[in-house]
Amino acid sequence: MKTIHKILMVLMIFTTVTSCESQIKNAKTATVKIYGNCGMCKKTIEKAANEKGIAQADWNVDSKMLTLTYDSQKTTPEAVTKKIAYAGYDSDAFRAPDAAYAKLPECCQYERPVQTKTVAATALLEAKTVTPAQEKGVGNVYAAYFNLKEALVQSNGVTAAAKGTTLVTAIKGVAMEGMKPEQHAVWMKALKTIQEDAVHIAGTKDIEHQRERFVSLSKAMYPVFKAFKSGGTVYYQNCPMFNDGKGATWVSRESTVKNPYYGAQMLSCGSTVETIQ
Ligand SMILES: [Cu+2]
Q1: On the chain, which terminus has fewer CB atoms closer than 10 Å, C or N?
Q2: What's the 105 CA to ligand 1 centre distance in angstroms?
Q3: How far is the CA of 109 from the centre of ligand 1 (A)?
Q4: Could you tell me which residues are beta bridge partners of residue 69?
């Protein structure tokens, strides 16, 4: 009698524990690498993956690994990874649609992985307008510029300096071979200014000084954005107040104004002056 009692107790505990851990039947676990940046990405990725009773996901910001527990009779890791791609996040198997990626908040616009076989067709299409080498090089400059802009929006001088350093490296990494002559001319004209501004931004944590330099940097970057495809629509925006009413511009990935010159103080001050396709 005593033994039966013990067994029953153990059984009960065991059932409780398992039902707490997961209510997923036929549970299997898989890990998939999903590209992303931050805590906000984590929320979006997990929201896209989770389905009550069918899939439960946990994405690790540092390792970029998604641990997926799923009902093996109802779904597959491939299906879940595809859903995540539709939410804007690449994996090695599925590349997110560019439109979905472009909709992500700026902080979430992670560096996209080198394209895999599944997207070879897209890569070839893009190669007609821009050769891959220069797209990669200038693309890194764009990414660093947007990250820097975001740090200024957040009025974070320390992050802005770090992003400035990334920008310096990205500028150095641009390969000029393969540029069309007119593109090469634009790049050469902008190079000295953007390099100098980036170095200054990287070398200080003083946000006011960084913003002053960002005025010049953005002005010099504008023709570059016009000459080299950025892989999506960008917006040339203007804040008429900054610099004692002289105004200052910047380029943004999103049409919504998030002012890098004032941050939270006057976040939505400004307007789009040109949409660059
Ligand atoms: Cu993010």
Answers
A1: N
A2: 7
A3: 6
A4: 29, 56
Tens-place pLDDT, residues 64-76: 999 999 999 999 9
From the list 161, 137, 133, 138, the residue with the least C-alpha distance to 148 is: 161
Q: What is the pLDDT of residues 54-112, one digit of tens each?
A: 999 999 999 999 999 999 999 999 889 989 998 999 988 888 888 889 989 888 999 88
Kindly give the distance from the C-alpha atom of residue 45 to the centroid of ligand 1, in angstroms, as a whole number. 10
What CATH code would you report for 27-108? 3.30.70.100
Q: Tokens 């770090």 label which residue? A: 162
* Type of residue at 123: A
**Ion ligand 1 — residues with CB under 5 Å?**
37-38, 40-41, 107-108
Instruction: Please give the model's pTM, rounded to 2 decimal places.
Output: 0.53
Task: Show me where the domains of the chain are located.
Answer: 27-108, 136-276
Residue 126, pLDDT score: 31
